[in-house]
Amino acid sequence: QVRLVESGGGLVQPGGSLRLSCAASGNIITIDAMAWYRQGPGKQREVVATLTSRGKTTYADSVKGRFTISRDNAEPTVYLHMNSLKPEDTAVYYCNANGLYGEESDPKVFGSWGQGTQVTVSS
Q: Is the predicted pLDDT of residue 84 greater than 90, yes or no?
């Protein structure tokens, strides 16, 4: 019942920037945390950035100082601002969220994944 849809991926030159978006829909009551993951060619899936409802953020060492995670509480939507992109950033980027959905009188726990969006950094 909770759906996540990523967008904003594409082809960009090294040193360029992109903004990824992840929109959540469904009968959502609360979202406790959202995160961005990525899986590059021949690599395992890794956590890129996380954001809790309290505003705490974490970043992978490989993206610190270049990527920023933020949210729009109204939609709700989570963003990943990506600057100074490198070829090694090439990957499929996924968003993940967990929280409560359904009716407030009978809340249910959810943990959902999006389909992913491709980011390719190449000259």
A: yes
